[in-house]
């Protein structure tokens, strides 16, 4: 294989540096003349055939693209690891255990107002979705979990969510919650 001439090398450089596919006229504008461009493009197309990059023509435009069989190597699955706030975790748990649930119901369970952004973050993560409207005055929007939520947390269904005994065994209950529960049990056992 003979090395390419200067015109072919120049066309190769122009196409490689271009941010968008170029027509023969646009390539000619860079070179200052149109002569020999078509032949150089055919030569480059032949030279690049079977390599990691290919020179392709789409309509009247030419550009380099990754060989189709190698495109999978360029994909990057990037996980954006952001920590969920305590309010986000509490809101997600309430939705998962009580779905479909309205914002007012979430606020009643949590005892504080839910920031607008909290539910938005859960929706952006793909864990929560709008689930319709409650048939009460004002028709508030209800929220439910998504299949993405189940997938992320390795659950086959909502029935696989841990129960109170599972949470206690894992040490995930707050000591204050345990003390309140113990107090309630003791009061039930007292005789009046």
From TrEMBL:
Transmembrane segments: none
Protein's GO biological process: cell division; chromosome separation
InterPro entries: ScpB_csome_segregation (IPR005234), WH-like_DNA-bd_sf (IPR036388), WH_DNA-bd_sf (IPR036390)
Keywords linked to the UniProt accession: Cell cycle, Cell division, Chromosome partition, Cytoplasm
NCBIfam families attached to this UniProt entry: SMC-Scp complex subunit ScpB (TIGR00281)
PANTHER family named in the record: SEGREGATION AND CONDENSATION PROTEIN B
Name of this chain's protein: SMC-Scp complex subunit ScpB
Species: Sphingomonas spermidinifaciens
Gene name per UniProt: scpB
